[in-house]
Amino acid sequence: MKDFRRTLLILVPYLWLLALFLVPFLIVVKISLSDIALARPPYLPQFSWADGIWSFLSQLDLENFAFLASDDLYWKAYLSSLRIALVSTLLTLLIGYPIAYGMARAPEEWRATLMMLVILPFWTSFLIRVYAWMGILSQEGFLNQFLLWTGLISTPLTILNTNTAVYIGIVYTYLPFMILPIYAALDRLDGSLIEAAEDLGCSRLSAFWLVTIPLSRNGIIAGSFLVFIPALGEFVIPSLLGGSGTLMIGKVLWEEFFSNRDWPVASAVAVVLLLILIVPIVLFQRNQQKQGDP
Amino acid sequence: MPQTKFAPWDDPNQKPLIRFENVTKRFGDFTAIEALTLDIYEREFFALLGPSGCGKTTMMRMLAGFEAPTSGRIELQGQDIASVPPNKRAVNMMFQSYALFPHLTIWDNIAFGLRRDRMPKHDLADRVEEMLKLVRLEQFARRKPHQISGGQRQRVALARSLAKAPKLLLLDEPLGALDKKLRQDTQFELMDIQEKTGTTFVIVTHDQEEAMTVASRVAVMDQGALMQVDTPEQIYEAPNSVYVADFIGDVNIIAGTAQPDADGVVMLNRAEGATPLRTRSEIAFAPGQPCHLAIRPEKIAISAERPEAADNMLQGKVMDIAYIGNLFTYHVELPDGSVIKAQTANTKRLASRSFTWEEPVWIAWTDSAGVLLDR
Question: Where in the sequence is the domain holding A218, given as residue range(s)?
């Protein structure tokens, strides 16, 4: 009886994963192995009991993956996504680390408020916040008006619909995911370690490099993955803030599905994206596990 | 061959290693240290003893350079060190939390300070090995701090702070996190290491037993001021105030008024009709001056019969008996309701206790057993 209950308890999350991850993923894999067709749903073969499972399986092929490899649009989009995700992760780290450091060093009574301010943007819809950036970055937007008013520039800057706007959007959106794990690591840091480093001959700066940075390493790694993984497949930000020159795999995926209605190729794009993401996800998991035993 | 006694503080020709000159430290409205003057000499094992919040840690942090005095001067070998940052001082500190770097091995922790001095690789390795040997941790060199025990961590912290051969080593509650047995062993180890390296140690502690065991001199502090600075024997046998007498060890304090007699003898009048107590005093008292007699329980004899001859004797009855293994402590209630503690050594095994509860007893002590205090 007790064993039965335990099995049931373990079963629930596995069933959840099975129903909401594995089954949809297998469907996507299956579609990626199918051929495009003018039908509903728009691909072939469809499984039917009459033909039997072998004739169904024999119609599947890797044609779509071969197509992905032959058309340079796709690997260029993957590379460009990787580059944008990497650069934005680096920028987020450069901006997020000082903020997290300042928060951890702030007086005790201020920390809860500062934390609140970091989380506050989540209370507004993500889409609305991206639209707000369009208002700020456009030719007649607040930023250009302000810069013209101060006299720093004489003609408006083109920021919206460029890669710069995409970087701004990604860094802005994912900054809290970088700040929070780094803050958690810095908050745990024992202040006497810094004093000990100074006592043993470190300057303020070298104590920071030799003690603070290594001891917040886990936070840096966690934050970087939390930014990098979603940024790689990001679709909304490049399609709203980016221009025609912004090539990101999330956008390509969307266009294959909804503009071209080529579900098999779109599914193949999604499967490859997932395979690319598995590497950082596994690394992230291992980092999280290592945090358990320092 | 008898060694000459180590007492540089009695030698007027000795130059102190550290000199606090009228040092005051305030944090906002709070005065942590008030106009404090103190000399500490080379090779001393100096203990700062006091309850938490008495300012002992602030003094240590000023020596390390983490705090600057609000006014006054702190000298190290005659040099004012107020403007010298912590990383430029020939002073190292062993932190209460040990503050070992968790991401570095024991070896790298000990090498940390030496690397900052850009010591040549070969000399550095020799020095680290020497330190590991000193604290007997050679086989743990490659471990991380979380992989060794609390006592071993304490020794790593000590080795790390000694590695740079500082002129002065500061120890902030170094044994606070250890259990009692380990603490006692470590106390002797600390004294050994101090003697071997010849470094001047300043230790901060709230544990009076620890201070008495390890230190050449003890400074008893209270509310940012030094109450008494002396050798452990003097602090115990000749406290200069009720505060010091009460802080160190067990003591009976009997209040009364002084009535000077001949030959440095002072009679202590307690209440009306009570027998005056006879004490030899080194300080003079005016007739009627309020004073306190401080007397240690082990200096009071207890007996069932009235003693033949004693300078002071009082009758009472046993109220409480505490058995501490090596000692019996009797709480004797006097007719006026006050309680005096008397101790006897437990020298015989399996002997039944000499006295029992509610039994009438006599307590007695000589006129030099206690100290008469005016504050």
Answer: 71-292
